[in-house]
């Protein structure tokens, strides 16, 4: 048994036994107080942690749902802007359409009014799982959107290459057929350069729609240049041919006029000769008739009519000389029968 030392007025030291029962009670009370205080403090800390976790879970869920809504909106926009015939693989668009139709309703926020007792059992596992599901769905939507966009680019590249191949064939035909038919042969050299450039672009495994279209546009410009040069030469040739034809026509007209003039001159000469011949024929015929008519003229005319007979013969001769030539006289084929 422990003893305390007590000082007395007589300066004598007296040893007194301690009350151990009281000490035990006091210690137990203090321990209990400490336990209670520790439990309360632990509950307070736990509640604070639970409230913080609940708040963070709600924030994460809201962010996940906002991301999901954005992904759905983006998917709907892509589906609207990219028709089924504008993708190389139709299955990519079908997958995106299926995902976009799957609607997820927003879950109410978790209750974060946690007390000291419920703090020890509070959990955010449900809302955390929902947030994870939304995030995964958004990721699937984004991946499907990217697949559709890539398929669209593939289709656009294939279409651009097809158009370029058709133009390449057409331009090659023009290059071959335009040899010697252009006003400026430099246009054909430019066309050949553009043909080689487009061919190299089409053979490039990393070719893009922009690259193909740029090379195709350059080729089209050179094709237009060659066509314009061909047309210029054609126009020049036609103009030269027209000028030559006009000169030839003018020459032929001049020759025809000369021939007509010569013919008219010859005709006038012939007419003069025919007139002279008719005059000669008439003079000869008149002389013969005069000679044949002379004896009859010496025959005594009836009394009182001699003047009248002489006048009649003179009138007859004038009438004969002034009459137009007969057809046989015109052809100098007359056999005159006199008497």
TrEMBL record:
<feature type="compositionally biased region" description="Low complexity">
    <location>
        <begin position="253"/>
        <end position="313"/>
    </location>
</feature>
<dbReference type="Pfam" id="PF25671">
    <property type="entry name" value="T4_Tape_measure"/>
</dbReference>
<feature type="region of interest" description="Disordered">
    <location>
        <begin position="253"/>
        <end position="339"/>
    </location>
</feature>
<protein>
    <recommendedName>
        <fullName>Colicin transporter</fullName>
    </recommendedName>
</protein>
<feature type="transmembrane region" description="Helical">
    <location>
        <begin position="22"/>
        <end position="44"/>
    </location>
</feature>
<keyword id="KW-0812">Transmembrane</keyword>
<dbReference type="InterPro" id="IPR057967">
    <property type="entry name" value="T4_TMP"/>
</dbReference>
<keyword id="KW-0472">Membrane</keyword>
<keyword id="KW-1133">Transmembrane helix</keyword>
């Amino acid at each position: 048994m422990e003893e305390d030392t007590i000082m007395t007025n007589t300066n004598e030291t007296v040893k007194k036994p301690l009350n151990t029962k009281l000490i035990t009670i006091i210690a137990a009370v203090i321990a209990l107080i400490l336990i209670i205080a520790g439990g309360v403090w632990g509950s307070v800390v736990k509640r604070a942690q639970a409230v913080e976790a609940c708040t963070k879970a709600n924030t994460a869920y809201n962010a996940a749902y906002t991301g999901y809504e954005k992904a759905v909106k983006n998917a709907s926009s892509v589906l609207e802007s990219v028709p089924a015939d504008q993708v190389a693989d139709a299955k990519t668009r079908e997958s995106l359409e299926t995902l976009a139709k799957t609607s997820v309703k927003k879950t109410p926020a978790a209750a974060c009014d946690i007390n000291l007792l419920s703090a020890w059992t509070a959990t955010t596992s449900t809302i955390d799982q929902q947030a994870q599901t939304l995030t995964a769905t958004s990721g699937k939507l984004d991946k499907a959107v990217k697949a559709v966009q890539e398929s669209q680019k593939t289709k656009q590249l294939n279409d651009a290459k097809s158009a370029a191949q058709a133009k390449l064939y057409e331009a090659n035909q023009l290059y071959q057929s335009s040899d010697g038919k252009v006003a400026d042969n430099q246009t054909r050299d430019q066309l050949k350069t553009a043909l080689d450039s487009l061919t190299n672009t089409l053979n490039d495994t990393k070719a893009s729609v922009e690259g193909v279209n740029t090379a195709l546009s350059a080729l089209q410009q050179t094709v237009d240049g060659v066509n314009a040069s061909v047309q210029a030469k054609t126009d020049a040739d036609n103009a030269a041919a027209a000028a030559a034809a006009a000169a030839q026509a003018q020459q032929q007209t001049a020759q025809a006029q000369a021939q007509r003039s010569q013919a008219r001159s010859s005709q006038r000469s012939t007419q003069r000769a025919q007139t002279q011949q008719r005059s000669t024929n008439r003079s000869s015929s008149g002389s013969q008739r005069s000679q044949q008519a002379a004896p009859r003229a010496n025959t005594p005319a009836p009394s009182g009519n001699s003047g009248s007979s002489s006048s009649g013969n003179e009138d007859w001769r004038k009438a004969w000389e002034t009459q137009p030539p007969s057809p046989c006289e015109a052809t100098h084929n007359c056999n005159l029968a006199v008497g």
